[in-house]
Amino acid sequence: MIGLYLHVPFCTVRCSYCDFYLLPEGARGAGPRGRAAFVEALLGEIDAAAVRHPGAVADTAHFGGGTPSLLAPSLITAILAALRRGFGLAPGSEIALEANPEDLTPERCAMLVGAGIGRLAVGVQAMEDEALARLRRPHDRSGAERALRAARAAGVASLAADLILGLPGQAPSRALDGIRDVLDLGVDHLSLYLLEIHERTRLGRAVALGRTRPLPPDEAAELWERAVDLLAARGFEQYEISNFARPGHRSRHNMKYWTDADYLGFGPAAHSYLGGERFSNPPDLAGYLAARGRQEPRRETASPEERGREALYAGLRLVEGVDLAALRRRHGVATPYAGDPRLEVLVDAGLVTLQGTRLALTRRGRLVSNEVLERLS
Predict the structure, then answer these.
(1) Which of 40, 77, 188, 283 could form a disulfide with 269 if both were Cys (CB 3.0 to 4.6 A apart)?
(2) In angstroms, rounded to a whole number, what is the distance separating the alpha carbons of residues 113 and 313?
(3) CATH assignment of 2-257?
(4) How far apart are CA 29 and CA 286, in angstroms?
(5) pLDDT above 90 as % of the chain
(6) pTM: predicted TM-score of the whole model, two decimal places
(7) pLDDT for 197 beyond 90
(8) Among candidates 167, 178, 184, 189, which has minimal Cα distance to 140?
(9) Looking at beta carbons, which pairs linking 207-213 to residues 24 or more positions away fall under 8 Å?
């Protein structure tokens, strides 16, 4: 079965670290009328895709962005109805929505659950008011606490949160305290990211000008190790480099990205991967609305070798790794094989393990995953 991704390109503000395609509040077309027009175009794109891909059945639907929780529950209900019509979303499918804490009142949480949202991923990012202010997040610590409690009380079946480590000025001890605080609020899943600096962002410019400094790499790695140990002690399984879950609460939709499975993306800047072909929508809301969601997607040409490398890199993010034999059957001989000399070097260095044809990063290897992937390219 395929996955479905809905890119909702609206946010209250653009956070200092964010490099995603979105329109902040106040931008032309970002208000309630613009959101309604966007959903109308989105429904058109979904209906057209169902005609182009007859018989495709989905078992996950993920609202990302942007901030999907800015959409009115009635609009989310309409989108889910279109997905069910076109792709047969059945009971038991994972239906997930990313949300910011300021949107999650008890009433809104109850309406989201009533609309069919079973998994809620809350963008907490930090549990320190100073750090949240530097990130330009529109909530504070108490807002994050209220949101997670409201979601839990509303009966969300699977509650997830996002946190960022290595923030400028963040003491490691306080970062670990923030993880403990979020776990104490009853989340089932934690996405834990080391801060990435993108040149085009506000934070990237501040770092380039020397106005702020992220945590040094060695200190960030040590903090990461301590965070992994903390989560393991609290019963969370690390199943992917940045993702930890209680048993039964992995992100089924994100697993499709890491296991070379098919998915369709909807909305401006959304990407798709179907039948070995990648295609995407332009990051252009105005054009998307003008075409009523029926723009011609951009086809991405890639050789079997390139697709094989992409599948290898994505699969190695999983703690369980990848089956090299299965990759070679699907993508050809460009992917490594069990006796590849490059793998022997990495095994000897303690960066990967090789059990039969299954290749996986070690814990040390996950800390330097980019270096490992470069050696395999």
Answers:
(1) 283
(2) 35
(3) 3.20.20.70
(4) 8
(5) 69
(6) 0.93
(7) no
(8) 178
(9) 212/134, 212/168, 212/169, 213/168
List the domain boundaries for the chain. Answer: 2-257, 303-377
Residue 264: closest CA among 62, 73, 70, 55: 62
Third-level CATH fold of 303-377: Arc Repressor Mutant, subunit A (1.10.10)
Given CA atoms 174, 180, 181, 187 in this order, what sign does their dihedral have? positive
**One-letter identity of residue 302:** A
Please write down the HEC assignment for all residues of the chain: CEEEEEEECEECCCCCCCCCCCEECCCCCCCHHHHHHHHHHHHHHHHHHHHHCCCCCEEEEEEEECCHHHCCHHHHHHHHHHHHHHHCCCCCCEEEEEECHHHCCHHHHHHHHHHCCCEEEEEEECCCHHHHHHHCCCCCHHHHHHHHHHHHHCCCCEEEEEEEECCCCCCHHHHHHHHHHHHHCCCCEEEEEECCCCCCCHHHHHHHCCCCCCCCHHHHHHHHHHHHHHHHHCCCEEEECCEEECCCCCCHHHHHHHCCCCEEEECCCCEEEECCEEEECCCCHHHHHHCCCCCCCEEECCCHHHHHHHHHHHHCCECCCEEHHHHHHHHCCCCCCCCCHHHHHHHHCCCEEEECCEEEECHHHHHCHHHHHHHHC
Tell me the C-alpha distance between 223 and 339, whole Å.
Answer: 35
Q: For 243-295, how does the pLDDT look when each residue is reduced to its tens digit (9 = 90+)?
A: 999 999 999 999 999 999 999 999 999 999 998 889 999 999 999 999 998 88
Tell me the one-letter amino acid at 308. Answer: G
d(CA 166, CA 175): 8
Q: Give the rounded percent of residues in the chain with a pLDDT score beyond 70.
A: 99
Long-range CB contacts (< 8 A, 24+ apart) of 307-314?
307/276, 307/331, 308/332, 308/334, 308/335, 309/334, 309/335, 309/376, 309/377, 311/260, 311/335, 312/336, 312/376, 313/373, 314/257, 314/258, 314/259, 314/260
Confidence of residue 334 (pLDDT cuts 50, 70, 90): low
